[in-house]
Structures are given as structure tokens and as C-alpha cells.
Amino acid sequence: MPHSSVAIVGRPNVGKSTLFNALAGSRIAIEADTPGATRDRVLYPLAVGDRIFDLVDTGGIGVVDSQKLEKLVERQIDLAIGAADVLVFLVDSRDGITPLDREVADKLRRSGRKALLVAAKVDTQRIEDALPSFHALGFGDALPVSAKQNRGLADLEQAILELLPAEDAGSAAEGDVRALPKIAVVGRRNVGKSTFVNRIAGMERVIVSDAPGTTRDSLDIAVRRDGLAFTLIDTAGLRKRGRMDDALEFFGQMRTERAVRRADAVALMLDATGEIGKVDQRIGAFILENYKPCLIALNKWDLVTGKSPGLALDAFAKYVGDRLPGLSFARLAALSAKEGDNAWQVVESVLELVAQGARKTSTAAVNAAVEAALKKRAPRAKGGKLGKIYYATQVGVSPPTFLLFVNNPSQFDGNYQRYLAGRLRFGLDYPEIPLRLLFKTSSEKEVGRYA
């Protein structure tokens, strides 16, 4: 059953993203004093009691965008309003009614949607006493809230529930999208991430523009198609930290890193027509540091094959392996997000990697693989002593995590750990995902208790 939708709307800088984050209980949307910080629709499935609905943050109505994207931002706002069952019309309690508030009120009346007038930043009794003036907007009394003081949020949630159509309200116990596997789509600027996300979502879900840095927030988009259900996370395009223009770009990049950490797998998108640079390498290293299954997606492949018909993907494999050595085991795929070629197959491949990472291996198989690795290559002696592995067992999944009982962890340097992880990947049928190895000091006698 699809969730109902509740969109927070209003002019720029009234506190929409702050209220959104307060209701969600997490800093999901970017909060900034700069008008126009939010461009796309930011969605969060909010559970209130036994019901769940999609809470949607939107850009400011009437915003003047620094990159001339006003029409695209307004388009996203209109889509949010059109899909909403309830609108939260947010005004700034400290400013009183502004001409732009009146324009927003007219727009919402024309939409025909149910609307709640909510006054933000009601931090004192004096401010609350002045709220009756907002009655002139024609939406009844303004409900006072203060995200800073966590004031009025429960009353707002209850007011929303009373307006939601009962027959469309989802249950928090059924189909919670927060439980779906998450795929973060990451890469540097203008490689086609948002085009890919819209293609998979089957709708104009996020803004696509040639302007660099269009996406700022990390955007979760739930997709159900062909028997599969998952969440795509569109992220801000990354570039060298020294070239960041403003705080918004910095916050966007921090959210991209957070998206990688909370994802079950990552699609690292590269521009097949360009070179793999330092930014791509930094992203790859971050993915590896967080032990995330990763598919390397070569976008704009149609442009490459248009110039070189018959070019095989294998021709790129060595180049990608050389430039992203830490991810040399990662699966490679070619696609055209713009044309749709192989886009869905990329998603299917990433979900296969998710399943690979959730696999559990028997202790007997783990120890057999470790023994085979030791026979092929033993760790180098350090200080006249050899590293010994007495016993190994899998202690976690997603990522597959293995605990090794050894005589001295310091005997196993980074090179040997990488070798061992590589042997275990193939020996235990995890060929395309990173493994986490943990070393614990023990003695052969002590290990007898575990074996």
C-alpha cells in the first residue's frame, strides 16, 4: 500500500528543513541560512503511532537560485504539492505576514489540497501571543511550533494524522521502506547520477541540470519494480575539497559520505568518456574503508562505443583496476543513464552484491580457506617470529566479518591482510565484495575452547 504524503511548503528561509529534521529526528535535510539550500524533494518515511506517511521537505516558493535553477526547483515543489495528501504551510512567526506568504497562500488554495498553517520559531510566549495575525492568510489559526525547543511537534503530528485519509494511511508495521536495501549512487560532479536515479525511479524525482553541483542533499527514493524493492540514494557530486564554493557544498559532501556509510551497497558512477581522477580515487578509498559492496558503473558508454564500435568492456577492466587498485575485485558494468541502456541491469547487479555480503559461511569452510591461504603464502617473520593463525570464524555479515585468533596481530601487516582477504574472497565465494578481518591475540591452547 503506498504511503500518504505530507509536504512542508512555504517561502524561503522559514525553517522548512529545520522542522523536517526535527520531525524525522535526524539531520537529513541541509539546514542553512542561505535561501535556496533545498532544491529537490527530500523524503523521509515518518512513523507516528501505528501509521506511517512520507514527510517531504521542499524548496522555498519564490526562491532566487544562484545557478538560475528557479524553474526546476519550482517544478519539484509543484510535484510535491500535487502528490501531497496534506500540506504543512509554514510561516516565520517572527516576520509576520509577508507578500510572499500571501503568494504561497494563493498557490496552496488553488491546489485544492488540505493544508495546515504552522508558525515556526515560536520560542517565546510573546511571539505566540502575536500569532492571531496569521489568521488573515485564510487557513485558520496558526499552529505554533519550535524545532529548537522541540515544542508543538507532537500537536503537529496529531493534526496531520487527523487530516490524512484513513483509507490511504500506511501502517508502520507493513512495508516500512526503511527496511529496504539501500543503494547509494555516488561519484564526482556531472557523471549522470541524478539522470540514472530518475531513470530507475521512472519519474522526474530529482533535478537534472548541466549546472555543476545541482544535487545538494542525499535523497532517498524508494523503488518497487519487477518484483524488487529497494531504496536509491542520490548524492551530491564530489570534487576536490579545496575547490568547494560554500558551506552548502561542504554539507552536501558530508551527506554523501554519510550515505555511503548507511548504504548496503554503492554504485560508483564514472564518466566513461573521461579519465579516472583523484576525486574518483578518494571516493573509492572511502567506499573500501567502510567495507561496502561496490559496483563500478561506467556511464555514457554509448558515447564511447559510438566513437569506437565493438569496443568491449574488458578493455576498460585493466585501466579501472590500475586507477582504483583497492577496488580491483569490484564488479564492472557499462550503461547509458540518458538512454536507459543497461540501467536496470546495474541495479540488479548491485542487489546481487548485497545478497553476496549477507551470506554466512560455515566455520569449517572458513578454516579450510585460511589453511589453504597459509600454505600458499605464509606471513613474513618479524623479529625472528612467524605469525600464526590458530583458528578463524565468521562473526558478522554485511560486510562479511571474520575473527582470526593469532599469536600476535602485529605479525600480520597490511600487505598480508590484503592477500588473506583476497584469498578468502575467492575461497569462500565472496569474489566481488570487501571482507573485514579482525585479529585477536590468543594461544593454541586457548583456541581449543573455540574449535
Topology:
Layout: E1 4-9, H1 16-24, E2 42-48, E3 51-57, H2 70-83, E4 86-92, H3 99-111, E5 114-120, H4 125-129, E6 143-144, H5 153-163, E7 170-171, E8 182-186, H6 193-201, E9 219-225, E10 228-234, H7 247-262, E11 265-271, H8 278-289, E12 294-299, H9 301-307, H10 314-323, E13 331-334, H11 343-357, H12 363-376, E14 389-396, E15 401-406, H13 414-427, E16 436-441, H14 444-447
Parallel strand pairs: 1-3, 1-4, 4-5, 5-6, 8-10, 8-11, 11-12, 12-13, 15-16
Antiparallel strand pairs: 2-3, 3-7, 9-10, 14-15
Helix pairs in contact: 12-13
Observed structural traits:
16 strands; 21% strand; Rossmann fold; alpha/beta; GMP Synthetase, Chain A, domain 3; 6-stranded mixed sheet; 3 domains; 7-stranded mixed sheet; 451 residues
Instruction: Write down the CATH topology of the largest domain.
Output: Rossmann fold
- Count of runs of 4 or more consecutive helical residues: 14
Helix-strand pattern = EHEEHEHEHEHEEHEEHEHEHHEHHEEHEH
Q: Mean pLDDT score, rounded?
A: 84
N- to C-terminal distance: 48 Å
Count of separate structural domains: 3
Q: Please outline the major beta sheet.
A: 7 strands, mixed
Describe the 3D structure.
This protein has helices at residues 16-24, 70-83, 99-111, 125-129, 153-163, 193-201, 247-262, 278-289, 301-307, 314-323, 343-357, 363-376, 414-427, 444-447, and strands spanning 4-9, 42-48, 51-57, 86-92, 114-120, 143-144, 170-171, 182-186, 219-225, 228-234, 265-271, 294-299, 331-334, 389-396, 401-406, 436-441. The chain contains 14 helices and 16 strands. 43% of the residues are buried. It folds into three domains: 4-171, Rossmann fold (3-Layer(aba) Sandwich), CATH 3.40.50.300; 180-357, 3-Layer(aba) Sandwich (Rossmann fold); 363-447, GMP Synthetase, Chain A, domain 3 (2-Layer Sandwich). Helix 3 links the parallel strand 4 and strand 5. Strands 1, 2, 3, 4, 5, 6 and 7 form a seven-stranded mixed sheet that branches. Strands 9-10-8-11-12-13 form a six-stranded mixed sheet, with helices on both faces. Strands 14-15-16 form a three-stranded mixed sheet. The two termini are 48 Å apart. Residues 168-174 have low confidence and may be disordered. The longest helix is centred in the middle third of the chain and has 16 residues, at 247-262. Helix content is 34%, strand content 21%. Helix 12 crosses helix 13 (414-427). By secondary structure, the chain is of the alpha/beta class.
